[in-house]
Amino acid sequence: MTDSTKFFLPEDRLPKAWYNLAADLPEPLAPPLHPGTGQPLGPDDLAPLFPMGVIAQEVSLERWIDIPEPVREVLRLWRPSPLVRARRLEKALDTPAKIYFKYEGVSPAGSHKPNTAVAQAFYNKEEGVRRLTTETGAGQWGSSLAFAGSLFGLEVEVYMVRVSYEQKPYRRALMETYGATCIPSPSPNTAAGRAILAEDPDSNGSLGIAISEAVELALQRDDTHYALGSVLNHVCLHQTVIGQEAMAQMEMAGDQPDVVIGCVGGGSNFAGLAFPYMAEKLKGAKVRCIGVEPTSCPTLTKGPCAYDYGDTGQLTPLVRMHTLGAHFMPPGSHAGGLRYHGMAPMVSHALNLGLMEARAYQQTECFAAAVAFARQEGIVPAPESSHAVKAAIDEAMRCKQEGKAETILFNLSGHGHFDMQAYTSYFAGQLTDPAFDPAALERALADLPKVAGA
């Protein structure tokens, strides 16, 4: 055991391949289905939206997929990211637990999202695509794709969930600094947006609506593809550099985690850290993996696992996932990146297989945990990441009650420097806990598509 606080890998230890959990699952994932025919999708069905390099990764069962050198070259701008032992937090909590966090806020966009944005931009550029459309909640993904697009000479158009567009003007400014166009969603630019605005001119928007707008526009032009920041297999795949680095750094620390934690919205940052550890769990390692979501959008903890659309406008393929229903409208919250009705199929499958646990927290208790963390460790967490902080603190306090010196590892997936208005509201006592409406869930689930044999 070392007395060090920070653990850095040299650039030559940056992973050379992505890890694909699909290769090791004891039961395969259910296939995605065509939204029109209901039949399993083929590569040609996805070609209007994604480059073939990405489509191949989406359906791959290979355990390791090489990272192209041009992608690794960009990742080296900030990777490998640091592993930090939260010694001051441990002391403040008076816990026998050891707490480590993998800090993804060191990326140019301030979160884990560029890990996949750079890869997706690269594969689109290789295929001759000139323009990308996408959605974003809190703006972490939109700013990451804007950054990646600027490096590879791609035009980027981002549809930002309206409530976050209004809450986070600096995240919008960051996208524009990287050269992207940022539009509040729902917008009058698309049929999907116009339909929502006709029904509710003051709609806060949702990731499901923003996805519909971005997909609709991508399908209209041959020079345009759609890029997704979470949920799909290839996105989770690209994020596994996080867990691979963490494993090497935990070896440097002379330690191994008993508990691995990440917040979950679409599931990518959790998957990035946890999937490599799930591979070890499948080999017999005793490690708990915990995904943490908001109680206002409790996809894993309250949503059934069923085939559903990834967007409100029902343009995307049907995937089997934990879902609140494509028409479910989560209440406004500052963790905009966690306001998604569905969950990555691979994460959903991992939960169903017993490879992970899920829990949900209220907004204000997560901010309280984030403030406690910031006052000891100096880093202000993004509202999304605060959910992982809260779970890590709860696990550390459990260790204190049980007298166990367990090791806890969580993904601090981004900093909150563009989210300070949320902290201002919290300190002013103006931050509330958005209410979850069971009746709204019941209505949304009534609209789940009927899939034969599912």
From TrEMBL:
<keyword id="KW-0057">Aromatic amino acid biosynthesis</keyword>
<dbReference type="InterPro" id="IPR023026">
    <property type="entry name" value="Trp_synth_beta/beta-like"/>
</dbReference>
<dbReference type="GO" id="GO:0052684">
    <property type="term" value="F:L-serine hydro-lyase (adding indole, L-tryptophan-forming) activity"/>
</dbReference>
<keyword id="KW-0456">Lyase</keyword>
<comment type="function">
    <text>The beta subunit is responsible for the synthesis of L-tryptophan from indole and L-serine.</text>
</comment>
<keyword id="KW-0663">Pyridoxal phosphate</keyword>
<protein>
    <recommendedName>
        <fullName>Tryptophan synthase beta chain</fullName>
        <ecNumber>4.2.1.20</ecNumber>
    </recommendedName>
</protein>
<comment type="subunit">
    <text>Tetramer of two alpha and two beta chains.</text>
</comment>
<dbReference type="Pfam" id="PF00291">
    <property type="entry name" value="PALP"/>
</dbReference>
<dbReference type="InterPro" id="IPR006316">
    <property type="entry name" value="Trp_synth_b-like"/>
</dbReference>
<dbReference type="InterPro" id="IPR006653">
    <property type="entry name" value="Trp_synth_b_CS"/>
</dbReference>
<dbReference type="GO" id="GO:0030170">
    <property type="term" value="F:pyridoxal phosphate binding"/>
</dbReference>
<dbReference type="GO" id="GO:0004834">
    <property type="term" value="F:tryptophan synthase activity"/>
</dbReference>
<feature type="modified residue" description="N6-(pyridoxal phosphate)lysine">
    <location>
        <position position="113"/>
    </location>
</feature>
<dbReference type="InterPro" id="IPR001926">
    <property type="entry name" value="TrpB-like_PALP"/>
</dbReference>
<comment type="similarity">
    <text>Belongs to the TrpB family.</text>
</comment>
<dbReference type="GO" id="GO:0005737">
    <property type="term" value="C:cytoplasm"/>
</dbReference>
<comment type="pathway">
    <text>Amino-acid biosynthesis; L-tryptophan biosynthesis; L-tryptophan from chorismate: step 5/5.</text>
</comment>
<dbReference type="InterPro" id="IPR036052">
    <property type="entry name" value="TrpB-like_PALP_sf"/>
</dbReference>
<keyword id="KW-0028">Amino-acid biosynthesis</keyword>
<keyword id="KW-0822">Tryptophan biosynthesis</keyword>
<feature type="domain" description="Tryptophan synthase beta chain-like PALP">
    <location>
        <begin position="77"/>
        <end position="414"/>
    </location>
</feature>
<dbReference type="InterPro" id="IPR006654">
    <property type="entry name" value="Trp_synth_beta"/>
</dbReference>
